[in-house]
Write a structure and sequence with these properties.
412 residues; homodimer; 12 helices; 2 domains; Alpha-Beta Plaits; nine-stranded mixed β-sheet
Chain lengths: 412, 412
């Protein structure tokens, strides 16, 4: 029953896609709905047509290719990921999941293998969320989590509207951006973007779920004043509590769960002049934990520290949580299928939670869902230094391919 | 001998200049060499011509108006300040010193008072240093501290060259930007921009010098990585030591001199994305103290803390001091003249150091120099809320006018 992918062809396809929107240092700069993203989509559609798949583009730009099954009552199995990248990101993030799915369908065609269930391959629109927020947008709309019209109206930093860009690159399709039928399952292969697989010497990761996430920002408001002539005891410097909160967010994980992580990715002060005491300072937070209870406690502590730091400096402050996603547990059936096919290949596996969020999180609202992780060297991600060896790419691709195949060949 | 200015005319002139480049909330937005600065300069030149002064514009745009003395051997006494403002600044900073000097010359004309020494009034180019760096630029070039050609080449944030803007607004004059003769003295009235006069219940400030200043920046360089999937123990987050250094700079003054102040006005992280661990983080410093020794120790401590914070996080760092000005002591003769005339008016005085830097600092390289401070309500400055009552403006204007007059009537 096992399908064994063609390693050379997988590598060729990975190398080909990596030339679209490539950066000088070997990375990818392929932001959602840019010309580079259009070129990657065009390449993807060419591959789908070459495989004689039925191409369907939905009104949010999600692109599907469908291979029929033999059982007219069997629901399709969906597999895929995303072709957009972070600013100056790496060539594996998202891409590997799409390329592996293409390689599965190529192998099934070459071997003239039929499946009871149809198999659909998908490229989701704007997974990264760096040009247009939020991320996981295409899967969010399709799964019903996000509102289509609201997401159309999102703008990038230059005020360009998402819908206009979608139309400009020719990827506002006709199909409704929603499941038109029941789905049997969704599988996604992604690079780990963390160090656990490498540290444990594993070949592939069997993902059991996704940690919960909280995003937000705290803005402190003090008084702008002259840096030279204002005595220290008459200052209301917004930057000081912001810095104290930042350091505290670094310490938060040590005081909570073993898997808690806390990050301040963005800091801004105004008026941002070397000789003016900052009037306002804003820091963002990104806090994650597998336990929604621990996440609640983390945000409580963070809010308490923000309050205390503001009081110490005598400034005002506001705390706003801008996003919260509950932790996700993938379905046993999919997790065990991934585990089983990896075992059959003799791969060393690690069962782990994903620290990053993926389109698969949204898909759990639609159908049974599972994920496979490929090893990320040094856990690096969102940088041109992101690296997964071709051997590791191949192992993970075989794993997801056979999980899809196993699910697609079961009786409806 | 005393001259008493016309309070109503002083207020009128202050209100008139405040309409040029005014903001909706009653402030001034009159950045150096913009159209608003040109309009203020045009108004100033009109005033000089109306007073029958000999107008001289030098090649760096400094504008002088000269009233002859009766003694051909007597050197001129210079008085003035600047007409440019900070972004969204106040209507007193710089402006009051220029308007008070105009009012002195108007009163001398009306009273047909002659002086042994010529009196020159000056508006310095780009005191603020917010559009083009550095500040105190016109006086710096004129006093020989800065190189004319180098300052011509400075560009603003949009890459516009200073020389091109100077020519565009028609203020690149023919006179050499240097003293063509000996000067007897320079006086400048400025608002305090600090709280000491108000706190002590004083009417005017007798400025004895300017504190020393150090500007610089520290850049920490770590590793960008995924905020969700990177465990805390594998992070090299540049923002953390930057925040620790910021908090430390807040504490520095308490550990050093009574008059030490330390400010981080600007903070930047890259890539500045909510879910990416910052790769680089840069904080600026502005540290000032009346003692150059204390300033040296402050920068040593700051550098040591930067190193320690970088080591704790395992990141690289660079410390660069970008500007250093030694503390300045004004000449006893000018300080005592200011004190004497203020006493004659019966004004309550406070002798104090200036925490802010002023064109007067550069003038100490050219001739004897003194300064008068006007009360700043709540010490506010560089904001539309900057406020000095008309009574306080008037008292400080009378003080600087009579200091100039006393010096200009002494024998050569």
């Amino acid at each position: 029953m096992t399908v064994v992918l063609d390693r050379g062809r997988l590598v060729d396809a990975m190398e080909t896609q990596a030339t679209i929107g490539s950066t000088e240092d070997g990375g990818l700069h392929r932001l959602a709905l840019t010309d580079a993203d259009k070129a990657a989509r065009d390449w993807f559609v060419d591959q789908l047509r070459e495989l004689d798949l039925t191409v369907r583009i939905d009104e949010f730009g999600n692109v599907f290719g469908r291979r029929p099954g033999t059982d007219p009552d069997a629901d399709p199995v969906l597999v895929g990921s995303h072709l957009d990248s972070q600013p100056n990101g790496g060539i594996y993030d998202g891409q590997l999941g799409v390329v592996a799915a293409l390689e599965l369908l190529r192998t099934l065609r070459d071997e003239q293998r039929e499946t009871a269930h149809p198999i659909e391959i998908v490229n989701w629109t704007n997974e990264e969320g760096s040009r247009f927020q939020p991320g996981l947008q295409g899967s969010g709309v399709w799964s019903g989590e996000f509102d289509l019209q609201a997401e159309y109206e999102r703008t990038d930093r230059d005020g360009v509207r998402l819908l206009d860009e979608l139309e400009r690159i020719g990827y506002r399709g006709d199909a409704p951006a929603e499941p038109a039928e029941e789905y049997e399952a969704y599988y996604e292969l992604h690079i780990e973007q963390g160090p656990y697989l490498e540290e444990s010497g594993s070949d592939v990761g069997v993902v059991t779920g996704v940690v919960g996430l909280s995003w937000g920002e705290v803005t402190f408001s003090g008084e702008a004043n002259h840096a030279g002539s204002t005595p220290m005891h008459l200052r209301y410097d917004a930057s000081v509590p912001a810095a104290e909160l930042l350091v505290n967010i670094r310490r938060l994980p040590g005081a909570l769960g073993e898997r808690t992580v806390g990050t301040v990715g963005s800091v801004a002060v105004e008026p941002d002049s070397i000789n003016i005491i900052p009037e306002t300072a804003t820091v963002t937070w990104d806090v994650r934990d597998p336990s929604d209870d621990v996440l609640d406690r983390a945000i409580d502590r963070l809010s308490e520290e923000a309050r205390a730091a503001a009081v110490r400096e005598g400034v005002e402050h506001e705390v706003e949580e801008t996003a919260r996603t509950a932790s996700v547990e993938f379905d046993d059936r999919c997790v065990e299928t991934v585990q089983h096919v990896a075992d059959e290949f003799g791969y060393e596996t690690l069962r782990l939670l994903s620290g990053g969020n993926h389109d698969a999180s949204h898909l759990t609202d639609v159908c049974d869902t599972g994920m496979v992780f490929a090893v990320s060297e040094d856990g690096k991600s969102h940088t041109p230094q992101e690296y997964t060896s071709w051997d590791d790419c191949y192992r993970a691709a075989n794993t997801v391919a056979n999980a899809v195949l196993a699910t697609a060949t079961t009786d409806a």
